[in-house]
Amino acid sequence: MGIGLVVGVLMVQTVASLVWSPDATLTGIALAFNAVAAVSTVLFVRRGGQAAWVVAGWCAGFFGWHVLGLGELAGWWTTGLDAAFLVGGGFQVSVVYQAVMATAAGFAVHLLLPRQRQVSKT
Fold first, then answer.
1. Distance between CA 111 and CA 7 in Å, rounded?
2. 122: confidence class by pLDDT, cuts 50, 70, 90
3. How far apart are CA 16 and CA 18, in angstroms?
4. pLDDT in tens, 20-76
5. In angstroms, what CA-CA distances link 92 with 49, 55, 71?
6. Comparing C-alpha atoms, which of 22, 43, 24, 84 is closest to residue 6?
7. Up-side HSE of residue 34: CA atoms within 13 Å toward CB?
8. CB 56 within 8 A of CB 35
9. Are 13 and 34 in contact (CB under 8 A)?
10. Can you say how many angstroms the Cα of residue 100 is from the centroid of all Cα atoms in its chain?
11. Distance CA 75, CA 18 (A)
12. Where are the domains of the chain?
């Protein structure tokens, strides 16, 4: 389920970058980050789930980015990156997008983190 969520986050971010990005430089940077994260995800899957920390790291970075965007749009802090966080031209749509993407990326990190095996005492 974690990998499916990662793939979903990457696909939504890529489409949003292509459709709503206000600047060619921002689009290029976003696509480059998403491409490298996609390669990491593919390698993770091909290796049978080894080195989950790499994909979890990418998701943690995406979580941070979207929390930064949510805080910027909410007025909690100012980064000067307003244009990078606006999606679809509408403020409410942008806030919902940033909140949903931050939640999805954070949940993906939770699902990808290694678990300790539970040993039954019976």
1. 13
2. low
3. 5
4. 877 788 888 889 998 998 998 888 888 877 777 888 888 999 999 999 999 999 999
5. 37, 30, 13
6. 43
7. 18
8. no
9. yes
10. 10
11. 26
12. 2-112
Determine the Cα angle at 15 with ends 40 and 3, to 5°: 35
Residues 40 and 106: their CA atoms lie apart, in Å, by: 17
Are 41 and 10 in contact by the 8 Å Cβ rule? The answer is yes
The answer to whether the CB of 62 falls within 8 A of the CB of 101 is yes
Could you give the CA distance from residue 19 to residue 111 in angstroms, rounded to a whole number?
29
Could you tell me which of 99, 94, 105 has the C-alpha nearest to residue 19? 94
For the chain, give the secondary structure using H, E and C: CHHHHHHHHHHHHHHHHHHHCCCHHHHHHHHHHHHHHHHHHHHHHHCCCCCHHHHHHHHHHHHHHHHHHHHHHHCCCCCCCHHHHCCCCCHHHHHHHHHHHHHHHHHHHHHHCCCCCCCCCC
